[in-house]
């Protein structure tokens, strides 16, 4: 940062030294641009920009995790509800006609309950990524697309989240009855003519859908902070996003 400031000051001094009074307006425009680039137009330092972004992301990730972790956080949200796997959807009509509709419904509900139960584990992983954020990351996020922070998290946390989430989802599915219901459903499916047994990784399926839903909600929280001043609940957040 000091090197950047030094180079900017040297450039401005050179311009000023060789400019006439009539060139003052051009000089002022360049100065204003320099201040904005350096985050100084609203008295923002590099550390304030990074701290402000970290505050925003801590709030956003906490909100997103909190939303999906509630009962029906997945199941009653049409944007992130975990649907029946393709193998099951293909034979759903036959299963219902054969009188197994309640079992199909229980299976779908239990997958979503497992995701809701596992979701809180994401918070600490998100916050670890926030702690590692540098000024370049913060600057890119602040000036980027509406979902730039979400893309940052996907890049930095997806592998770790999958690694941590999958066994937790597996345990949660056991606790809420997904695994048992799936086995019962698969057994019933095989009693229907022309219906093959299911063959997919249930733990991986629920893990992928659960994380996809979590990132979807994180993007929604990020957009809210960018666009809605009321969502900027600290003075520093207001200062950083107003000066963007």
Percentage of residues in helical conformation: over 70%
N- to C-terminal distance: 18 Å
Topology pattern, helix = H, strand = E: HHHHHHHHHHH
Continuous helix count: 11
The major beta sheet can be summarized as:
none
Number of domains: 2
Mean pLDDT: 77
Low-confidence stretches: 1-41
What does it look like?
It is a single chain. It contains eleven helices and no strands. With 244 residues, it is mainly α. Helix 3 crosses helix 10, helix 5 packs across helix 10 and helix 6 packs antiparallel against helix 8. The N terminus is likely disordered.
How would you sum up this structure in a few lines?
The chain is mainly alpha-helical.
List strands and helices in order, with pairings.
Elements: H1 2-17, H2 24-37, H3 46-69, H4 86-97, H5 101-118, H6 122-131, H7 135-142, H8 148-176, H9 178-189, H10 202-227, H11 235-242
Helix pairs in contact: 1-2, 3-6, 3-7, 3-10, 3-11, 5-8, 5-9, 5-10, 6-8, 8-10
Using brief descriptors, characterize the structure shown.
2 domains; 73% helix; single chain; 244 residues; disordered N terminus; mainly alpha
């Amino acid at each position: 940062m000091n090197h950047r400031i030094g180079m900017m000051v040297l450039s401005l001094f050179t311009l000023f030294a060789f400019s006439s009074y009539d060139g003052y307006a051009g000089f002022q425009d360049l100065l204003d641009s320099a201040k904005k680039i350096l985050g100084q137009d609203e008295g923002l330092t590099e550390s304030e920009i990074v701290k402000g972004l970290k505050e925003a992301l801590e709030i956003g990730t906490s909100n997103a995790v909190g939303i999906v972790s509630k009962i029906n956080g997945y199941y009653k949200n049409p944007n992130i509800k975990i649907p029946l796997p393709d193998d099951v959807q293909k034979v759903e009509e036959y299963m219902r006609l054969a009188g197994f509709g309640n079992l199909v419904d229980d299976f779908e509900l239990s997958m979503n309950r497992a995701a809701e139960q596992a979701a809180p584990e994401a918070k600490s992983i998100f916050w670890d990524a926030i702690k590692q954020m540098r000024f370049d990351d913060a600057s890119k996020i602040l000036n980027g697309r509406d979902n730039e922070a979400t893309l940052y998290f996907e890049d930095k946390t997806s592998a770790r989240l999958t690694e941590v989430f999958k066994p937790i989802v597996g345990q949660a599915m056991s606790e809420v009855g997904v695994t048992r219901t799936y086995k019962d459903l698969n057994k019933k499916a095989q009693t229907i003519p022309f219906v093959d047994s299911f063959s997919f990784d249930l733990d991986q399926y629920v893990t992928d859908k659960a994380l996809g839903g979590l990132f979807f909600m994180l993007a929604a929280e990020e957009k809210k902070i960018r666009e809605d001043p009321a969502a900027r609940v600290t003075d520093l957040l207001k200062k950083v996003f107003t000066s963007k």
